[in-house]
């Protein structure tokens, strides 16, 4: 990750310097924006947070899920993540451990408390719904620069906050098992925070829109959205994530993300 | 005079509990409670049996944190069945003290341990005795007294177990359905003179090597699965559960090849047989389950997943299992919906005699804290020489469960 950071700074510096001298291709500019955003989100170490998810169906009926997350930043690869389910109560104590990788499949384990069983699961199923929601597993996983290729489109007033200007870029998943052909993202030019993402399905039509809001800054550096709303345009269903109790640099280490420790969780 | 002292005693006894439960180190009580309707479509084989069994069960769990590194967990189980004294039963599934450090753990008390990977049979899963009354398919096990040490290292995790005390299989009384047909004698026969207080040992190493999850286990002690020895008691034929001493080496593995999971469980037992006259002799045997599960993701442009499961079952020891040479076919349909609806269909086909067991399980969350589960099981084409399946021949069943989680 450090290497990437230097590279990213290099690329941004280069692109700023060369902005007037050479015409940058849209692909180069798209990549540079992604790298700049990534560089700004480097070095947070580890985080813990609570998440509430409200699923809303077409008729407006709701159901709730509550989970806790722990994340460990891994330099040079994807992050390690631990998700513990609190609600619905029939899956309370179920835990989901992921080692995400920039290239190749992620490693995933599921802990089933009723059976005291740790089950390794296939991570191919990226496009499947996360807990019956409109979020797919790949939407919830660690976002790494190299998981996509990019193309810058235009500058535009940010959706949700017209006082800010956004870069609008397309990105294309590298993984052939992604459920998307492309995503269109709005990233604000001041802090490089994603404000909105449109998801296009395998047939190339607009499937979902994610809106990110209620940003808070932590450790004077890292911005986290506290509300994420995913709307499915085909089904009319939506899922709203509300994050709370964000903690940074809590002292988590690799050993907190060992599959042998899943049974300890509470 | 006595009353104030009693009051004081009660306060000192109760107060710490209250303080603890409101303090940093919390006490939590969770669990589930539910009702079950179990029905049989055919005429009963025995006059004491019924065609319907109605019951209610509760499974409370307690969690009490002692300090940052230690805790107590408990899980109790009790079922009351209005139609069966055998099915009215309880168990301490867990009552365990845990102590944790970064790379080791100590567990002491009563608990449950799971080893294994395959779907059709839990072959290497040895520590806990089966809850024969509660289990349709070996999913429920009895709590086992144990002292466990866990070492978590870069080269894998090692578990060491000392297992004092042994729990017999409860075969129930004649009104239990299904049952083996021949009632079992009240006294089991043990090979060890320590009987059910023999101290067993077990160890397991497991590790992840890229896409392979591998476990190797060793067990030395009283074999959980009994041999059923026909004996005459007052001129009546009965079965005597016989528990032999056994050493076994087990391997469980799972390899991920994209959407295909390849699963293996293998066992070598250095064990014993018993003659009709109660004489024990050495008997070695091998058993394995090898198969895979292939998942079709998002079938027919839905968010449904369909898992296709195939497993070959092999076991040389005919007295302990019907699965000498069998093929398991499974279909797992996961709807990925808000209600977490899942359907699992399974068939085990005996490659020697053509006997078949069928099972269908479906579950769905029907309200915020409520879950419904339906299970059907039936046998077809049962060969007259297949003793295990003959016991289930007139016992095709449907079970409906409704559970509330608290």
Shape of chain B: globular
Our measurement of the CA-to-CA distance between the termini of chain A, rounded to an integer number of angstroms, reads 31 Å
What is the molecular shape of chain A? globular
Going by helix content, strand content and strand pairing, the class of chain A is mainly beta
Kindly estimate the percentage of residues of chain B that lie in beta strands according to DSSP: over 45%
- Helix-strand string of chain A: HHEEEEEEHEEEEEEE
Helix content of chain B: under 10%
Main β-sheet of chain A: number of strands, strand sense, barrel status?
A: 13 strands, antiparallel
Enumerate the strands of the largest sheet of chain A in spatial order, edge to edge or round the barrel.
6-5-4-3-2-1-13-12-11-10-9-8-7
Instruction: Please compute the radius of gyration of chain A using only Cα atoms.
Output: 19 Å
Q: How does the major sheet of chain B shape up?
A: 18 strands, antiparallel, barrel
Strand share of the residues of chain A? over 45%
Uncertain parts of chain B: 1-23
Approximate helicity band of chain A:
10-25%
Largest interface: A-B, 31 and 43 residues
The oligomerization state is heterodimer
**Total of DSSP H or I helical runs spanning 4+ residues of chain A:** 3
Cα gyration radius of chain B (Å): 23 Å
Summarize model confidence as the mean pLDDT of chain A. 89
Strand tally of chain B? 21
Question: What's the topology here?
Answer:
The complex is a heterodimer of chains A (266) and B (406).
Chain A (H helix, E strand, L loop, with lengths): L1 H16 L8 H15 L5 E11 L5 E11 L7 E8 L7 E5 L7 E6 L4 E5 L15 H4 L7 E11 L2 E13 L6 E9 L5 E8 L4 E13 L3 E11 L5 E11 L18
Antiparallel strand pairs in A: 1-2, 1-13, 2-3, 3-4, 4-5, 5-6, 7-8, 8-9, 9-10, 10-11, 11-12, 12-13
Helix pairs in contact in A: 1-2
Chain B lengths: L1 H21 L4 E14 L11 E16 L2 E12 L7 E12 L3 E8 L32 E10 L2 E9 L24 E2 L8 E11 L2 E11 L4 E7 L2 E8 L1 E13 L2 E15 L5 E17 L8 E11 L9 E10 L7 E9 L5 E12 L2 E11 L6 H4 L6 E9 L1
Parallel strand pairs in B: 8-12
Antiparallel strand pairs in B: 1-2, 1-21, 2-3, 3-4, 4-5, 5-6, 6-7, 7-9, 9-10, 10-13, 11-12, 13-14, 14-15, 15-16, 16-17, 17-18, 18-19, 19-20, 20-21
């Amino acid at each position: 990750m450090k290497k990437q950071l230097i590279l990213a700074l290099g690329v941004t510096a280069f692109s700023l310097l060369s902005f007037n001298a050479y015409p940058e291709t849209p692909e180069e500019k798209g990549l540079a924006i992604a790298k700049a955003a990534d560089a700004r989100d480097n070095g947070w170490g580890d985080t813990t947070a609570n998440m509430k998810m409200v699923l809303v169906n077409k008729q407006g009926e709701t159901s709730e899920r509550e989970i806790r997350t722990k994340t460990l930043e891994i330099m040079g690869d994807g992050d390690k993540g631990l998700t513990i389910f609190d609600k619905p109560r029939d899956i309370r104590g179920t835990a989901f451990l992921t080692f995400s990788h920039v290239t190749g499949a992620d490693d995933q384990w599921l802990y089933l408390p009723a059976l005291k069983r740790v089950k390794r699961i296939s991570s191919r199923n990226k496009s499947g719904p996360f807990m019956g929601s409109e979020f797919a597993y790949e939407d919830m996983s660690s976002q790494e620069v190299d998981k996509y290729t990019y193309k810058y489109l235009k500058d535009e007033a940010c959706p949700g906050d017209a006082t800010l200007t956004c870069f609008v870029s397309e990105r294309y998943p590298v993984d052939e098992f992604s459920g998307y052909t492309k995503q269109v993202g709005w990233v604000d030019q001041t802090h490089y925070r994603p404000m909105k993402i449109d998801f296009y399905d395998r047939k190339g039509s607009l499937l979902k829109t994610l809106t990110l809001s209620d940003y808070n800054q932590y450790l004077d550096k890292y911005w986290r959205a506290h509300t994420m709303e995913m709307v499915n345009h085909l089904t009319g269903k939506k899922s709203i994530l509300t994050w709370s109790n964000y903690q940074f640099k809590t002292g988590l280490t690799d050993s907190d993300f060992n599959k042998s420790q899943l049974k300890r969780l509470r | 005079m006595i009353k104030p002292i009693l009051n004081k005693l009660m306060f000192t006894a109760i107060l710490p509990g209250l303080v603890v439960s409101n303090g940093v180190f919390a006490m939590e009580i969770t669990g589930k409670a539910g009702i079950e309707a179990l029905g049989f479509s055919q005429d009963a084989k025995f006059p004491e049996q019924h065609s319907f069994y109605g019951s209610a069960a509760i499974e409370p769990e307690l969690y009490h944190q002692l300090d940052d590194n230690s805790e107590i967990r408990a899980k109790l189980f009790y079922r009351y069945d209005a139609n069966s004294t055998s099915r009215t039963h309880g168990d301490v599934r867990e009552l365990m003290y845990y102590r944790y450090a970064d790379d080791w753990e100590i567990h002491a008390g009563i608990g449950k341990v799971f080893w294994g990977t395959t779907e059709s049979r839990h072959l290497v899963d040895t520590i806990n005795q089966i809850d024969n009354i509660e289990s349709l398919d070996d999913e429920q096990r009895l709590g086992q007294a144990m002292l466990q040490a866990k070492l978590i290292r870069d080269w894998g995790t090692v578990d060491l177990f000392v297992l004092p005390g042994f729990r017999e299989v409860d075969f129930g009384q004649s009104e239990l359905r299904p049952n083996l047909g021949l009632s079992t004698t009240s006294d089991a026969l043990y090979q060890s003179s320590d009987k059910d207080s023999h101290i067993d040992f077990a160890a397991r190493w497991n590790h992840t090597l890229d896409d392979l999850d591998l476990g190797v286990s060793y067990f030395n002690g009283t074999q959980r699965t009994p041999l059923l020895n026909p004996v005459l008691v007052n001129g009546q034929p009965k079965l005597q559960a016989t528990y032999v001493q056994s050493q076994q080496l087990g391997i469980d593995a799972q390899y991920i090849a994209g959407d295909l999971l390849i699963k293996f469980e293998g066992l070598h037992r250095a064990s014993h047989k018993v003659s009709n006259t109660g004489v024990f002799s050495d008997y070695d045997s091998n058993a394995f389950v090898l198969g895979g599960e292939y998942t079709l993701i998002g079938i027919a442009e839905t968010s449904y997943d369909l898992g296709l499961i195939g497993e070959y079952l092999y076991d040389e020891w005919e007295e302990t299992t019907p699965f000498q040479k069998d093929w398991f076919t499974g279909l797992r349909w996961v709807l990925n919906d808000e209600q977490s609806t899942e359907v699992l269909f399974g068939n085990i086909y005996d490659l020697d005699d053509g006997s078949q067991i069928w099972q269908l399980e479906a579950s769905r969350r029907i309200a915020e804290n409520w879950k419904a589960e339906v299970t059907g099981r039936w046998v077809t084409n049962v060969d007259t020489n297949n003793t295990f399946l003959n016991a289930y021949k007139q016992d095709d069943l449907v079970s409906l469960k409704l559970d509330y989680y608290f």
